[in-house]
Design a protein that fits this description.
Number of domains: 2
Radius of gyration: 21 Å
Helix content: 10-25%
Oligomer: single chain
Order of helices and strands: HHEEEEEHEHHEEHEEEEEEEEE
Number of helices: 6
Strand content: over 45%
Structural class: alpha+beta
Distance between the termini: 40 Å
């Protein structure tokens, strides 16, 4: 694991310090366009500025730095349809134009860990039927309390007249590497150096009256802990919010999330996650209340040795209340 991490650091250095061709497949940068180390990290007026972005959420809060590699600004694809956006991202991601560094923390899963450890009596008061726990329902679905990620690929921007200052309007396609040194199992932290490698498509259009987010990823996860199975996975998520439609329309203001994990050794299905959500917008307040509900199924072979719990149920309910600003 340490050797692999060292290799990734070296690759990162090469990506940042080596000039790349522009998005139009023109010639590589000339000597007078060579970037200093400071320009590589923060950009410049001539080569494109780096962009600091953040997202606040009860389940996934992150801070990211977007670094231009090709010396070209982020393209604005506001007028294109979703299929056209995906096509443009795919073509441009073949030659990475942007590097993104991200630090993320999962507040609600961390709260579940804290309650399990510091208030076991209160945590046990949430038990339902002996094999389920209400607190675990609210915090389930996240295997790390925090993570550090590196992304290389293409990035585009979405704008709307009069709302240009809203920052979380970007689309991404490319290659992602994430690292964490802790694993969450039933709201208990387990020391585990894990590395996640994936191809990812992600985007968000976030304006005052409408918000649309999508994510598609295909990847692999490697664990240093011998009792946690390495996996390949496929995941899909789509969420939309529209303040102008009737809130009781079923297909509007909804969320769908699906993920399948299979064993890297046997290809056996180890984990399934299915989540559906509904949003209830309050236009006068500019917020929407959200409730996701679903289930997670895990095979007994997901864990082995001391981590395998033969008495635990295979199914965990997912219940995630949230609020969107």
């Amino acid at each position: 694991m340490r050797g692999l991490l060292t290799t990734l650091v070296l690759v990162l250095g090469m990506l940042v310090l080596t000039p790349l061709a522009t998005a139009e497949d023109g010639p590589a940068t000339t000597p007078d366009q060579q970037r200093s180390f400071r320009e590589c990290l923060f950009g410049s007026q001539q080569l494109g500025w780096a962009d600091l972005d953040w997202e606040l959420d009860l389940y996934y809060t992150n801070l990211s730095l977007n670094i231009p590699l090709a010396g070209t600004p982020i393209q604005d694809l506001s007028g294109l349809s979703e299929p056209e956006i995906y096509s443009r991202l795919f073509v441009n991601s073949l030659v990475p134009r942007f590097l993104l560094l991200e630090a993320a923390v999962m507040p609600m899963p961390l709260a579940g860990v804290a309650l399990q450890e510091s208030a076991p009596g209160f945590y046990r008061s949430g038990e339902i039927g002996g094999s389920q726990n209400l607190i675990q329902w609210v915090t389930a679905g996240f295997e790390e309390p925090y993570a550090f990620s590196l992304f290389v690929g293409d990035m585009v921007r979405f704008t709307k007249q009069g709302e240009e200052r809203l920052s979380s309007n970007k689309g991404y396609m490319g290659y992602l590497c994430s690292y964490s040194n802790q694993h969450i199992k039933n709201n208990v932290l387990i020391p585990d150096d894990s590395l996640e490698l994936e191809w990812k498509l992600k985007g968000e259009r976030s304006f005052r009256d409408e918000k649309l987010a999508w994510s598609f990823r295909l990847g692999a996860k490697i664990h240093d802990h011998p009792d946690i199975a390495d996996t390949f996975y496929l995941g899909f998520r789509r969420s939309d919010l529209d303040f102008t439609v009737n809130p009781i329309e079923f297909l509007k203001n909804s969320t769908i999330e699906v993920r399948w994990d299979v064993s890297a050794k046997t290809a056996a299905l180890l984990r399934q996650e299915y989540v559906l959500g509904k949003k209830f917008p309050v236009k006068s307040w500019g917020v929407a209340f959200k409730l996701d509900a679903g289930m997670i199924w895990e095979a007994p072979d997901r864990y082995s040795g001391r981590l395998r719990d033969r008495d635990a149920g295979n199914v965990t309910v997912v219940l995630r209340p949230n609020i969107i600003f």
